[in-house]
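Q: Got a minute? One more chain.
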Amino acid sequence: MNSHIIREITPLSDSDCFYIADRRKKEFTYPIHRHREFELNFTENSKGVRRIVGDSIEIIGDYDLVLITSKDLEHVWEQHECTSTEIREITIQFSPELFFNNLLNKNQFTSVNRMLKDAEKGISFPLSAIMRVYSLLDKLSSEADGFYAVVKFLTILYELSKCPYVMLSSSAFARVEPAFDDKRITKVQEYIADHFREPISLPQLADLVNMTPVSFSRFFKLCTGKNISNYIIDVRIGAVARLLVDTSMSISEICYDCGFNNLSNFNRIFLKKKGCSPKVFRENYCKKRVLV
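A: Always. Here it is, folded:
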């Protein structure tokens, strides 16, 4: 299955801070792919396009803005139900080395650093955030002075880092562990990541951090925003999605390999979480894909 995923070689050179492509197009034709460079992708007049980022599959509206900072996170914008013939797409790719000498660790870049870290799972921005940076995006490709272009690009990143955004792919699919300050939560996360294929009980996890089940349940929900059972299900579904993409295992094999013990219940949960069946999810990734 992995041979269907393109690893893109981008035009970004070592002597440039970023590469920008500002295109007017009638349709999306590029297949699903991934690349080392970070990418900020904006689309306009794109209602009905299907956007896939990791195991997130969504139909987007007229405006869409996504940031991806993982070299292993597959993504694509597909024409799907879009009928517009005046699509605009602005793609900005930049190297992880743009922020040299620990620049991201400076106080002034705290919010940018956090956003770039979150974008390892892909993040999308609401319309309010898009409008906040639209004028800068709109004119970035026509900026003749390279220095001022970089300043404007950094301003775009900073402004976006101050806005709300939504993380797209699951942690398990993107192979990124969500970070929390509390060591007890980290310990539980690591245990679940290592043992999600096995039965896991609330008392078992509470014992790991020397808490009662009731106290631990409240504590975990407060720290993560999820109850423990939903968190475990999300980890398992993320692992399922990754196996659907990366392997030729049957759906039933994947179901039982990832800790589900009932195929019909698994299919129901997957449909609820992903909006499609495991079979359709796999097809969305693998049809019409080629290796280049």
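A: The longest strand covers residues 18-25.
Q: Perfect, thanks.
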